[in-house]
Amino acid sequence: MTSEQSVEPESSSEETAKPRHAGFAYTLGRSLITPLARLVYRPRIEGRENVPLDGPVIFASNHLSFIDSIAIPVAAPRPVHFLAKSSYFEGTGFQGWMSKTFFESIGAIPVRRGAGQAALDALDLQRQLLDEGLAVALYPEGTRSTDGRLYKGRTGVAFLALQTGAPVVPVGLIGTDKVMPVGAKVPTLKERITVRFGEPLDLSPHGPATSGRARRLATDEIMAAIHALSGQELAGIYNEAPAQSTIEKIKQALPHERR
After folding, report:
1. Which residue intervals make up region (Disordered) (predicted)?
2. What is the pLDDT of residues 10-62, one digit of tens each?
3. What CA–CA distance (Å, rounded) separates 179 from 65?
4. Is 223 helix (H, G, I), strand (E, B) or coil?
5. Please, what sign has the CA dihedral across residues 144, 204, 108, 176?
6. Cβ pair 20, 131 in contact under 8 A
7. 163 in Cβ contact with 156 (< 8 Å)
8. Total-model pTM
């Protein structure tokens, strides 16, 4: 694919520095899917030089489409892991095998989604990946934006960065919602996307991970960097499903930390 900055072939050092989680499917996906996706979708990739090539790093991105989790690994100059619903890995028959193989090939790691303990388990898994010196991709908004606006960030990404000391590389994705809108079965080949990597953020000056104020300030810095890259309209609110009960409405109205 072409880009506003030339996309050089991966160097041998990058190709051999495979994470411990890499198996045959990941190796195959890294060597085949990445160049194929670049050839077909011709993404504009900016700021690849901002990405540290080794050590732990958190990619914090806006979230517009299902293919965001493909666009980032395809554009990044190093392997990237992200969490995906465990149901993608648990299917049976040929279709189940295809789904599992595909998600493994793009660096996905299965996790059970949900609040409470499930959310804590997911956060702990991401911390383990960072402790191993790997790169993970996360969406501070929590879920996809269906109207194209950039929503307020939840503090989980900042907590992870402050806890591990990993730098945060902000990512601005543009056009992925046009290539594959919410609800679409397959992506279109008529549109191009842009992937912008910003300069790494050191969030440690905000304070420790145990401080709610530090987490909030760090999150706001991350979201400001993403906004500068994506140019989206700011929603000014959290991206969450409408409350279904009176109690849920009260909980959403009360000030509390979204994680």
Report:
1. 1-20
2. 333 333 334 445 556 666 666 777 777 777 778 999 999 999 999 999 999 99
3. 8
4. helix
5. positive
6. no
7. no
8. 0.80
